[in-house]
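Quick start: read one record
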Amino acid sequence: ALNFSPIGRAIQINRRLDAEGLLEIRGEHADRLCYAATLTIDAAPEMEPASAELITLRIDVELMLLRDVPRLDVRLMVHNTLANHRLRAFFPLPFAAEAANYDGHFEIINRPVQDLPAISPPDGWAETPLSAAPQRAFIAAFAPQPPSDPLSGDESYALTRPGLLVGNRGLPEAEIIFSENGNTEIAVTVLRSVNWLSRADVATRARNDQQPMRADGLAMIGSYDAELSIIPSDSRTLNYTDGWAFSEGSFRAALTTIDDGSLPSSISLIRSSASIFRISAVKLPEDSARDGIIVRGCNMSDEPLTITLTPWRAFSVVDVVRLDETETGGRLAVEADGSIEFKAAPHRILTFWFHDSLN
């Protein structure tokens, strides 16, 4: 991994954006707020091009509210002219989070918030430990649990705790950092400009005897898009589904002829009884001779769950199949409404074949 090494004067360029040219656009399906922002940097010698002059990065910002969608989408167009830096978006929290939940591979990873050394490695460490961690679709943080009072029977610790989820499209680095006011902030890396793979003056390593090595072509000079979404959440509803929905993009509509049918005006192709069971695929079988649909999902939690899946219509048969869609011999009972119930172990991928074949 390419670890970020802050320069000695990094704190001097943590500045808020100055907005210019505010444009409000109201539409039938969405409202937008657009503006051009500038980030003025007093470039340090470690940055390139080395200059004593002020360097201005331009960032075009678009905020979008879709009708009846409970989130605020953020699009950033970064016009990068500077090498060797990291650009991050910060989302302040009105509380001091003790941990954060990161969307991972087949699980939601809970990581404690750590107040780690900023630059120099602690005694006995070869390199400064990092609090930044990988994410897939989102990072979420919630207010800490209030202490319980066992003598009075106070169960305030069980109350729903407010939180915030920040979704992304292809931005894999995030962390929780402490604010000056004692609270915490969600920090998502928008751009990493890497112009050196190794340097003798990397401050986060206790010993660096590697030869300097440039990484020409990784400086990310040019214009780049970054998309995020601010999603209100809490410890009860979690709203992970909204984070996955944003990350995966939107449905596309295609014009077709009008056909006879009995579908209602609104419908779910497949419905899960628990949002933490993430449906990752609803598709036609690979074997074109087969009818029906393939449904795949995973229990993202750390606990076994009993899950009910309900398709938009009842199928006669539901078989348990492998990832390659070969049959396991397992078959589930189908209820009158077409739903099935099963046990889902933590972090296990399950695949089902819904069909009407009676073989």
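DSSP finds one helix and 23 strands in the chain.
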